[in-house]
Batch of 4 targets.
Target 1
Amino acid sequence: MRVLHVFRSPVGGLFRHVNDLARSQQALGHEVGILCDSSTGGEAAAKTLESLGKTCSLGVHRRPIPTLPGWGDVAGTRATVQLAKSINADVIHGHGAKGGVFARLAARKLKRPGVYTPHGGALHYDWLKPPGAAFLAAERALRLKGTGLVFVCEFERQLYDRKIGLGGNPSNVVYNGLWPEEFAPRQLAADASDLLFVGEMRQLKGVDVLLQAVAALPAATRPSLTLVGEGRDKAAFETLARDLALGTAARFAGRKNMAEAITLGRTLVLPSRHESFPYVVLEAVGAQVPVIASAVGGIGEILPPDCLVPAGDIQALAAKLQGLATAGQAAQALAASLQAKARERFSVATMAAAVTAFYGSIS
């Protein structure tokens, strides 16, 4: 098959998903092309896309794609139609809200199979709030007959059905996957802290909850914490850490790739208020790292209940962190067991094969 993947910004988990999927589909003998935004992602995205362009036989194509809905979407849809036609795409697969708009409209125009993977997107919004109502109404209007839906977790499929409706369209849940080399146990850095956070520095990720939970523990036994990432709320979190008198117990390490970040702490903590199916949890499990996370999104499809805490509950998180001091071998045994299960359930090869088979089922 000749497949065109369409999405907006080449950053984050969505970009990793498309990157992995495109490379694997090429390896399976299909021809793949990419269309994404030209104004975001910076140097890191440019390097990844350059490498991807050497793999994808139908090329990597970039153009300005605005975040918010507007007249630019008309030009974006037209460009998607022209590109899909020029490369004779058999399937047009849109990722995220904006990629979903372009891909579905182009597929209808060209009378070719269209596939949409939300990756959270508009699903984070609420019908009762004005911006959310507009985004969700647009999603419902684009619920075109014949469009296949691929979700990265069961939570996301159920949320989509509840907020927008599957509309009788074929759908499938295909989990994100890891490469074989990502299932190697990590080697801790010499200065590794007790706890590790990796993610965007945003209120959505619950960094404030984590800092307050650490501060709630006795100073004499307080675990050390390394926070990896950048974002709009980082300065506020640094101020909060000072106000809580955490001192050297909380270290902000800036942005790092996951291979380095995962070596900086013994237990990964993800206290998010909202998530879909976060790669950071999957990558930690693959590296045999103990994880504590909020019981939100599809995280419970990766981790057992003993690893989960209610989102936003400072005291529950503090209690779970305090229990780490005596977890010892039990925590490591659980991490090894979760890694073994992940090898069977969460591989890039399985993901690519399942998505590509789904294309065939709707063609």
Target 2
Amino acid sequence: MGKTCGNRDRTAARNAVSDEMREVFRGAADLILPYRCEICGDVSDTEDRFGNYAVLYKNLYSQDPELHICGKCLSSINVSEEDKRWFLCLSNPVGNDPCPGLALYMPFTYKGLVERAIPKIKFGGKIELARLFGCLLGSALSNEHISADLIVPVPLSPERLAERGFNQASEIAYPVAKLNNIPFADDVLVRIKETKRQSEIRDINKRAFNVSGAFGVSDNWDVTGMTVIVVDDVVTSGATLHEAAVALYNAGASKVLCAAFAGNRNVKNAEPF
């Protein structure tokens, strides 16, 4: 028995030494091969500044964040002034609009760093950036003190979801919902029509035609009388969010608000409902 215990003690000691050595080697590797910023590729120097975000992230996802971003990029993500965050959803309003005056909340501008970061999310698999942007959008929206019954993301087609591995709109919408104490549901809106990528279409009218009738509301949901916030990552013409709102109104929603992390609008032309 004594010999067995001794062997166990020696094994435990060796394991402890091994764990300690692994930590030493890991620290040395970080010095030799430092983390690179997810956006610009420079050395990331903000890991020790993410205290509050790390706590928030762990509360949301039950794990530590794996986001690496340099201080220069982090400081370049600036929220717009308060009176420049609300817009009409459609950049070019149309006659006989089934939901005229549809409001869009968009607190960041699609330029500079954000313009470089969004493609890394959509086409580079940088899900951590989407979650960071969701937290920033959720924090900005919470200052508006808007209540709603549901927050829903714009859905991807099954094919595009399989190709990308995640829906960036959903990853952004989830922390928005949690930070505003509004229920999140990613299965309310469904794609009922396959569309081309909006980013590949320059003409505004063709963009509207491309997504016309693209969305429906799942048979599993009754949104009658509900106030719904529908979330996307980026807005250009506003046609995609507008069609999502039309589907919700057709299904009986009482009010719909559109929200996006960023876009290329410059003129304030709408107020929140």
Target 3
Amino acid sequence: MVKLTRVALIQCACSDDVEANIAKTERYIREAADNGAHIVCLQEIFNTLYFPQEVDVKQYELAEALPSPTTERMGQLAGELGIVVIVPVFEEAQPGVYFNSTVVYDADGAYLGKYRKNHIPDGPQYLEKYYFTPGDLGYPIFNTQYGKIAVGICWDQWFPEVARIFALQGANIIFYPTAIGSEPDRPDYSSTEAWQTIIRSHGIANGVFVAAVNRVGVEDAMHFYGHSFISNPFGDFLIEADDNEQIIYADIDYEQIRELRNLFQFFRDRRVDTYGPLLKRVIDPDHSQSSR
């Protein structure tokens, strides 16, 4: 690995023209490579509008059986430019079974595998349970030419268990492709700070870098606020976007992982023998371990 790994996040606005979205993203990927990026991550379902705002059976037509022309195009681009590319897409596993997925290509264009979103939300204008089956591939790690990376997708980013599993498997950077914005049932509330805080906290608790990339713009009734960012194992922002379309970059020094973990011995002091209750959906307080 190189001493410093340059990570780029591409924060875009999307239209209903899939080919235009792909072409624009490709231009941004080339720009990122020209600016020295080693790893480029795209936003959640990067080539379409955020269609789960409503229930509409026609939206299944946006799904792609993998490998697809979209992913193959991104893989060829990764090989041409010599960069790692993280490509989030709407996957059709078979008719009637669809996943919110991410495909990872190494810097030589080799396909390293995919991740399927495990945690599927369902709320006002985030109606993902209608479209996406919960992931069935676990929590894979991708050993790229520029370090070991992991990818969670949007709602996954709120669950500390996800980041812990990734880190225990050796991930240096956890990427979170995202589509997050306004809350229709709380129009005066912005989740921006909470979103950034929980993800940065995962970085601290696990001694890893985290990189979250959001979309921007107004799609139907939702405003996507952007503010993509990259932070280090100490929770410090290395870079933060605003609410405009842009590429952000950060140069990552993997030695900071060792520094944080030597300072805070979270992994050493884990009490795995006491965590059994986490495997239960509900813990009955009358039958908890403390009451035995």
Target 4
Amino acid sequence: MKKSMYPMSLAACLLAAGPSLGATLFSSDLTSAVDFGVVGTADSAATFGFDYSSVGIPQNSGSDTLALKLEANVSAGAVNSIAVVTNQIFSGAYTVEFDMWMNYTGPLEFGGTGSTEFAGGAIGHDGVTTSFDSGANLTFTGDAGSGTDLRAHENGTLQGLADSTFNPLLTGLNHPNIGGELGLFAPVGAPAAQILLHPAQIEFTRAGAAGFAWRHFIIDVDETAGTAAFNVDGIDVVTLNANDGTGFSASGKVGLLYADFFTSIAGNSAVSFGLFDNLLVTGGAPALTGDLDGDGFVGINDLNIILGNWNQTVPPANPLADPSGDGFVGIDDLNQVLGNWNAGTPPAAGAAVPEPATLALLGLGGVAMLRRRR
């Protein structure tokens, strides 16, 4: 007897159990591109499993010296950026953690030619948009060489340092060391092993510059409140709120970002890059499987997202329609919605909720489309 390809019936399906408090939702040492997508401009690069000991950088926490290496504006002399994003979508209350190292062309105090580049992290990313134009993010320059060395964006819109959500000790601070008064980052030198390989990597970073040390990012996300709180090396830097200003979706993919917003090319491309290691996403509260639109209820709106993008690859299909993260909107995604149908807080009184029989017909129609594809 052949196995049925029909989606799970409502009577037979089991509700997917959400993660327990603080449970691991996703983890990666970033040595493999599996589970990730890369969106970047032409003159950018992502290298998974890069051995950073080859450029004299000391081992981060972990068992090896492998990490994700990101580069931008390698040779074109133009603004370039890149984002590495998870295939998995996160929603509800969750926490993102990762380690980051920024390297730049020396001498370190003022930086060599083309030394100023940005690196950081994002939540709520759509997985399609290049650069910083999706979700909420925070980035730093490595050399404190920009007019604004700390930048927070909501869907690509730069949030001013005067915003009350920033740590008040950062308000109004700017070039050359916006974190100087806070003592956010102390001056450091390049690793001795790197100086041996590249003698121009002398001197020390300026106070407040983020480069030449492993920095630990923590992003606490609360979708209900619409907030994303960014903490770096134990210091609360900024809390972005989706309910004011530009706004952003707290539900989406996690992104690791790197960009060069200037046209000068690094004097030594071998030492111009950002490293990312130990990406971890944990759940502060159970996530609601199948709630694609993030309204706290699995229903007709979520089903319509699937059906409206059925049988398409991502992109161009809406990334929200691909909760399975396999890059194709199909039966696995449909089953996530059907398997948790009517879970969560019901919609407002009077909203139409299909009966199980109607839903089953829709499911059968989806399977018919699937069979036509085969």
